Amino acid sequence: MHLFISTLLFQNRFVSYGSEHLSWLLYGALTTIFWIWYGRRQPDEPGKRRIGLIMSLVPVTLWASISVYLIAYTDPVDLNLVLPFHVCYFINLMMPVLMWRRSYFLFEIFYFVVMAGCIQALLTPDVSTVFPDHINIRYFVVHIALVQSILYAIFVFRFRPTWKGLGKTLIWMNVYFVFVLIINLLLDTNFMFLRKKPASASLLDHLGDWPWYILVSEFVAVLLFAVVMLPFVAGRRNKDRPAAG
Q1: Domain-located, residue 10
Q2: pLDDT tens digits, one per residue of 124-157
Q3: Residue 224 falls within a domain, yes or no?
Q4: Nearest to 95 by CA among 44, 71, 68, 61
Q5: 34 or 128: whose pLDDT is higher?
Q6: What backbone torsions phi and psi does residue 85 show, to the nearest 5 degrees?
């Protein structure tokens, strides 16, 4: 049945920018527009927070359910698949806190990681299985939902990132790197690909061998964080520019 559905709808193996990949990106664009539209229709702040919370709980529930399934029905259990220490999966679990508490502190940090990291993960997916495999669905739903949540915070909560937030993000990310490195050593895992590169093609393939790609990634992160800050810098300049006439 799995093979029939994948062959009928998509390919029988995942292909970057094939019909399945493009379908997921289209799904992400349409559902993002829907959630932002629905959130902006709410008449008050509690309503906007409630819709944001519901939106953010969908990928959390999916991630947790699939992790429980993998623990119960796979042997041996792959800890890389059931523990939430890849940064995007960790942020996924924290996103309902941002939405319900309308936390600008979390937004400042999550904005740069999600817009620089999760978008790259959607454009160069680290996934080998095809729809409707549960790993495939979890990967795309979670990464799409993270981008949705950040855009929701921008267009519904009217949050804006700052250069100060970029600095905070770099500090917190390095603290998290050290934490994950310890986890990897204790559990023999490869969260955040700190021990080796992912098997599928990714940006890391162009950054050298271990451990150099980790060090180079720091500079790439600064560059990408600056790039995703640029639309707001340009927006402020246009706002401050005097009107013609």
Answers
A1: no
A2: 888 888 888 988 999 999 999 999 999 999 999 9
A3: yes
A4: 61
A5: 34
A6: -100, -10
210 Cα distance to chain centroid: 24
Q: Is the Cβ–Cβ distance between 9 and 20 less than 8 Å?
A: yes
Which two three-digit tokens encode residue 63?
Answer: 């991630």
Domain that holds residue 78: 15-232
Asked if residue 168 belongs to a domain, the reply is yes
Token reading at 236: 């402020």
Q: Report if residue 9 sits inside a domain.
A: no
- Local structure of residue 81 (DSSP, 8 states): H
Q: What is the DSSP letter of 206?
A: G
Coil, helix or strand at residue 40: helix
pLDDT for the residue numbered 2: 46
Instruction: Tell me which H or E stretch contains 100.
Output: helix 87-101
CA–CA distance, 106 with 150 (Å, rounded to integer): 10
3-state secondary structure 160-205: CCCHHHHHHHHHHHHHHHHHHHHHHHHHCCCHHHCCCCCCCCCHHH
Task: Look at the chain and count its residues.
Answer: 245
Measured in degrees and rounded to the nearest 5, phi and psi for residue 28 equal: -60, -45
Whose CA is closest to 13, among 131, 144, 137?
Answer: 131
pLDDT at 231 > cutoff 70: yes
The pLDDT score that the predictor gives to residue 10 is 52
Residue 156 · residue 36 · CB < 8 Å: yes
pTM comes to: 0.86
Please give the C-alpha separations between residue 192 and each of 58, 127, 196, in angstroms, as whole numbers.
23, 14, 9
- Our count of domains for the chain comes to 1
3-state secondary structure of 85: coil
